[in-house]
Task: structure prediction
Amino acid sequence: MRYKTIFFDLDHTLWDFESNSNQTLSELITAYNLIDIGIPSEKAFISCYEHINEQLWEDYRKGLIDRLTLRNTRFHKALLEFNINDYELSLKLGEYYLRESPLKKNLFPHALEVLQYLKQRYDLHIITNGFNEVQYIKLEQSNLAPFFKHIITSEDANCKKHEPEIFEYALSLTQSTVSESLMIGDSLAQDIAGARNFGMDQVFFNPQKKIHTEKVSYEIHSLHELRTLL
Result:
């Protein structure tokens, strides 16, 4: 392998966002007695919230809304779907979620053992579209932080991950070249297309084996496969 530098995505690639988010939402529903005020079930609320949250994140990535709108809107919209119009409650739910979710520690299988293997051979860094105040907590709480030399966020780079500017920023910060760098992530739009359009090789992490037509440098279904690939 000619690579010297590896950039990892964080959410949905190393840090199991879905498991950690669902755990936090389940705790939140109990803490605020949402079933008692009209939420039909935990499953219904989580499904509704996830759908709304993903739509708002897509708007944020496109630059259609800002961070504050994303944070202050998603729980309000979710409550409204169940005819609960309580903006103050939605703000409390948002604060609870932001405080508790980054503390969760669920990782994808083999994450730590693979990072231990890779760290001995490559310079490892994170590139993430997540917000600084939560991404650093996630890395510390889940014991991922010691593996990475630089944490590159869209906030620090002042651009989103699919944009070439964030990869330029990452290469400058890490003193790497595009030909010796590799991007590993789960998002075809953000990680794979973003890196490919910049000229960087990519590894598509596809644990659910989703069907797609994107051109990728490499594709894996388990992080453990990186030990063979790299």
Remarks:
- The first strand starts at residue 5 and ends at 8.
